[in-house]
UniProtKB/TrEMBL annotation:
InterPro entries: PatA-like_N (IPR025497), T2SS_E_N_sf (IPR037257). Residues 69-138, 142-215 form the PatA-like N-terminal domain. This is DUF4388 domain-containing protein. It comes from the Bacteria. It holds the Pfam family DUF4388. Transmembrane segments: none annotated.
Length: 419
């Protein structure tokens, strides 16, 4: 924390504290008033507001220096049957878990994706339009969940159930924290609870550890919730088990996150079931489709530079460039698309010029889809003509072509036309 110096405070010879960094200044301005300096080791400063604030006593505090470090803290709070608030701060995100006699009864989070409205959207309980409608209607007197119920978008029973899932997700995120500070206070303001649940700490700990272990394994095949699973043609579908519903929701267009909303399940559960389908050979997973023309051109440039590097290495690059030039002219679109943008000798294009050209050709609304299709076709042809060239190269002994084709195909897979 704070290696950039933004949170640096200097204490001079008179004992006066001077905020040096901008972040330190902001934090200290937010704490104007009188504080008591508490006894502490020489390398630590602990101060507590002297008066005017009813706050719990600080029972525990410390630095988070490794993943799962807070599992021991949560376990101790549960086994000791403490009541209070475990607050976690990492600079950008604040989370709080509320305990009563050792059980988790509530949680709050400022993290993206963990707030109630976002959670209801992630689980498919609200559409994006409903989420925005409720957010606009929320007032200081009516919270988000209550407003969603009043507007008829969700039942009170479903809201209660998903608020429980929200608390679980926040607790799991707390136990995955890799950096920051934690504090345990022996009381909290009851009004901060948005929902009162009763979740045993032992069950939460076991599930958190299981998720951390298994998700690392799943991420080798399904790197993120934005990746897109697709059915393998001619492979029989599953006929029993929880994976059947997930398989039916897979259409080659929906991402893992989209499938979560479609089936009303969390990311971990859906990822686990997709992993089972991948292991069974009936589903594959591809990278998410790039967002925006610039990202599309970046993938194209990565793929084409790889192709040209390989054919130049066997002294056949000029031949491949001539075939590509003929293809571009014959296709009737690439001359206009590539105008003043390349290709350069290494096969890459100027992204700014390409974006300008495609917008002029098809308009901004169609630019992304058409650019992806055109560049995908161009790279596919480049692989087609590079393969025999590399097979003929005595230094490659036929091994280079299939390796190149597989590597380039993986890069451009997100550009493939959706079906």
């Amino acid at each position: 924390m704070g290696e950039d110096g933004h949170d640096l405070v200097r204490v001079d010879g008179t004992g006066t504290a001077h905020p040096v960094g901008k972040l330190a200044s902001q934090r200290m301005r937010a704490r104007q008033g009188a504080f008591r300096l508490m006894p502490a080791p020489a390398h630590v400063v602990v101060m507590r507001r002297a008066e005017g604030v009813e706050a719990g006593s600080l029972r525990l505090c410390g630095e988070i220096t490794s993943a799962s470090a807070l599992c021991d803290i949560v376990s101790m709070v549960g086994q000791s049957a403490w009541t209070g608030e475990l607050a976690i701060y990492d600079g950008a995100t604040n989370r709080s878990v509320f305990f009563e006699h050792g059980a988790v009864i509530g949680a709050l989070s400022s993290a993206e994706g963990e707030r109630l409205g976002e959670m209801l959207y992630r689980y498919g309980a609200l559409s994006l339009e409903q989420l925005q409608e409720v957010a606009r209607a929320v007032t200081g007197d009516v919270r988000f969940g209550e407003m969603a119920v009043r507007m008829g978008h969700i039942s009170r029973e479903t809201l209660f159930q998903l608020m429980g899932r929200q608390i679980e997700e926040i607790v799991y995120a707390v136990m995955r924290a890799e950096s920051g500070m934690f504090y345990f206070l022996d009381r909290f303001d009851e009004a901060r609870l948005t929902s009162r649940q009763n979740l045993p700490v032992s069950g939460l700990l076991m599930e958190a550890v299981r998720r951390m272990d298994e998700m690392r394994y799943f991420r080798e095949r399904i790197p993120s919730a934005e990746h897109v699973p697709d059915r393998v043609p001619d492979r029989p579908p599953p006929t029993e088990g929880d994976v059947v519903q997930i398989y039916q929701a897979i259409d080659g267009v929906r991402s893992v996150a989209d499938i979560c909303r479609a089936v009303g399940q969390g990311e971990f559960e859906v990822t686990r079931q997709i992993f089972q389908l991948v292991q069974g050979g009936c589903v594959t997973v591809r990278a998410p489709r790039p967002t925006g023309p610039a990202a599309i051109v970046a993938l194209f440039n990565e793929a084409m530079s790889m192709v040209m590097r390989e054919v130049d290495a066997v002294k056949r690059g000029d031949e491949v460039r001539q075939h590509l030039a003929s293809f571009a002219t014959g296709a009737g679109i690439y001359d206009a698309l590539f105008m003043r943008a390349g290709p350069k000798p290494d096969g890459t294009l100027d992204d700014g010029q390409i974006i300008e050209n495609v917008a002029m050709l098809v308009g901004p609304d169609q630019a992304e889809a058409m650019l992806a299709q055109w560049l995908y076709d161009y790279v596919s042809f480049a692989i087609f003509i590079a393969e025999p060239v590399l097979r003929e190269a005595s230094t490659r002994s036929g091994a280079g072509a299939p390796l190149l084709a597989k590597s380039v195909a993986d890069i451009i897979a997100p550009l493939a036309p959706s079906h």
